[in-house]
Design goal:
12 strands, single chain, 6 helices, Purple Acid Phosphatase, chain A, domain 2, five-stranded mixed sheet, about 240 residues, seven-stranded mixed sheet, alpha/beta
């Protein structure tokens, strides 16, 4: 049996310190063979399309440093880029942005060098970017809203995803086991941009621990989550 942890949505300087601390503690005791990060390592809000002039003038240094620091501390074995991370790649490929493109290109190089240093296998942000082991798939996530888990289950089958910042689940009826699970997030659940969005009250800090059988492909997943500032983390998983 192999052990794994799937964690996602750090958002750089918007990370929740208690959530990251819980992840590190769980990793130390659980000792997973696979450490999978599901995307949105950085927030990069000044690069958001339609951002305000105030957002545009923000420095990204702390955001950038926190994301790279997380890679060096957690050392993911696998990483999927998220839509927020993709902002840097889009800017690096935009020939009309001059010096901004140059700095974005340097950022891309620095990120990829850091991933190479820690021997992290990574995939770009793309609808077909899926890391699979056994019958389980891991992806950043491409749907949002109340039906996100259902949509991911219908498209990707058995999978773990981020993007929505929610702890969610949907099982497709059928002979085969096809359950999509939203892992929650490592970032703050109450950020400035969603302060007037009631649906964001579904957001929750969490990550997923699990095991899988290399021979059969069968998998088991267990949710670590924070409720009222108390973390519940299943640390010892035994098969009977």
């Amino acid at each position: 049996m192999k052990r794994f942890i799937f964690a996602t949505d750090l958002h750089g300087d918007q990370q929740d310190k208690a959530a990251v601390k819980a992840l590190f503690k769980a990793t130390e005791s659980f000792k997973p063979h696979l450490r999978i990060f599901g995307g949105d390592l950085f927030d990069l809000r000044p690069l958001r399309r339609g951002c305000s002039q105030e957002e545009r003038s923000e420095s990204m240094m702390t955001d950038w440093r926190k994301g790279l620091e997380f890679i060096s501390l957690w050392k993911p074995t696998h990483l999927l880029l998220g839509n927020h991370d993709q902002r840097l790649y889009d800017l690096a490929e935009n020939d009309s942005k001059g010096i901004e493109q140059d700095y974005a290109f340097k950022g891309v190089q620095e990120l990829e060098d850091r991933l190479d240093k820690h021997k992290t296998e990574w995939l770009p942000y793309h609808k077909r970017s899926v890391f699979q082991f056994g019958h389980m798939k891991c992806l950043h996530g491409y749907y949002h809203g109340m039906s996100a888990a259902r949509s991911h289950a219908l498209t990707y089958g058995a999978c773990l995803f981020g993007h929505t910042h929610t702890i969610d689940e949907y099982a497709i009826p059928g002979l085969e086991r096809r359950v999509a699970r939203g892992a929650g997030c490592l970032c703050k659940t109450d950020m400035h941009y969603n302060s007037r969005t009631p649906s964001s009250m579904r957001h929750a800090n969490g990550f997923i621990l699990g095991t899988y059988n290399e021979k059969t492909g069968d998998y088991w997943t267990f949710q670590a989550e924070e409720i009222n500032k108390t973390w519940v983390i299943p640390e010892k998983l035994k098969t009977l």
